Amino acid sequence: MKNKVLPFFLIIIFIFIFIIFYKGLQDTNIYTPKTKINYVVPKFEANLFYSNKTVNSSEIFEPNKFYLLNIWSSWCVPCRQEHSILMELKKKTQIIGINYKDTKISAEKFLDEFGNPYQKIIFDKDGTTAIEWGAYGVPESFLIYNDRVLKKYIGPLNKESFKEIKSLIK
Amino acid sequence: MKIFKLILIVLIIFSFNNLKANINEDIKYKITKNLRCLICQGQSVYDSDSEFANSLKVLVDKKLQEGLSENQIYDYFKDKYGEWILYDPKLNKNTYILWLLPILIFLIGGAIIFKNFIIKKN
C-alpha cells in the first residue's frame, strides 16, 4: 500500500509544479504598475517653465474643474504622435504639462513647431516631479477632477483615449 | 596653543560631517540596490542608468536629506509603484507563500530524512 501511494503522490506534485511553470510561461514578465484610480493628487513643489516661479500643487488645481496632466518631453517620439490629440483636447479642458528631463531650448522649439496645448508647464529637470505622480516614462497623462486622479493613461493618447476623455469631461 | 585647539575642533567637526556623508551613501546604496528599475526590468536602480533610475536616485537622496528612514522611503515608492518595486518584499498577505513555502519544504524534507534514515537506523 505504501509503495503505491508514494508514486501517486509524486505524480500529483509533478503535475502541480508543471501547471505552475506552464502558466508562468504564458504570463508576461514585463511588469506595469497598477493604474490606481480615484486617488488624491500628490502634493509637490515645482518650478514653472516660463516664469521659473516655484508653485505648490494646490495652486495649480482648482476644485470642480477637469484637468489633464500630461508628462512630455521634446526628445520623446511618442509625444509627437499624441500632440495633435492634446491640441484638440485643449478646446475641451485645461491641460497642465510636466516637461520631463528636457532643456528649455529644445522644449520651446518643440512647442513652436507643434503648438502649445498647455495652460501651465512645470519644468521637471531631474524627473522627480514625474515620480511623485507615479510615472515611469513619457508620455503619461492623468485626468483630474476635484483634486483626484480619475484616470491614468500610460503611453501616448490615441483616438480611443481621446473619446473616453471627451465623454468623461462632458 | 589656541590656534592648535581651534584647528583640532575644526578637524573633528569636518570628520563628523564626512562620517555622516558616508552613512548616507551606505543607506543610499542599500536602498537603490533594493529598488527595481521599471524600465530595464531585472536590474536594480543602483545598477541601471536609465532616465527613470537616475531620477529615482535623486529622489532617494532628497528623501534621505528630508530625514526619512529607509522603511519610510520603501513605503513611499511602494505607494507609487506597488510592492513589485522592491526586490526584498516584506511579509504580508500577498507574499506569505513566497516566504513560508521554502521553510515548509525544508521542514517536510527534514522530516522525511529523519523518518527514513534516523528512525530506521535505530
How does the overall form of chain A come out from the CA principal axes? elongated
Question: Roughly what percent helix of chain B?
Answer: over 70%
N/C terminus separation of chain B: 80 Å
The largest β sheet of chain A comes out as: 8 strands, mixed
- Number of alpha- plus pi-helical segments of chain A: 6
Low-confidence stretches of chain A: none
CATH topology of chain A: Glutaredoxin
Strand share of the residues of chain B?
Answer: under 5%
Greatest interface: A-B, 15 and 16 residues
Helix/sheet category of chain A? alpha+beta
Rg over alpha carbons of chain A: 23 Å
CA-to-CA gap between the ends of chain A? 72 Å
3D architecture notes:
The complex is a heterodimer of chains A (170) and B (122). Chain A is α+β, with helices and mostly antiparallel strands. Chain A is 40% helix and 24% strand. Chain A contains six helices and eight strands, in the order H-E-E-E-H-E-H-E-H-E-H-E-E-H. Chain A has helices at 2-26, 57-60, 77-89, 104-114, 128-132, 159-168; strands at 39-40, 45-48, 54-56, 66-72, 94-100, 120-124, 140-145, 148-154. In chain A, helix 4 links the parallel strand 5 and strand 6 (120-124). Chain A is elongated and about 80 Å long. Chain B folds into two domains: 2-90, Helicase, Ruva Protein, domain 3, CATH 1.10.8.640; 91-122. The interface between A and B is medium-sized, with 15 and 16 residues.
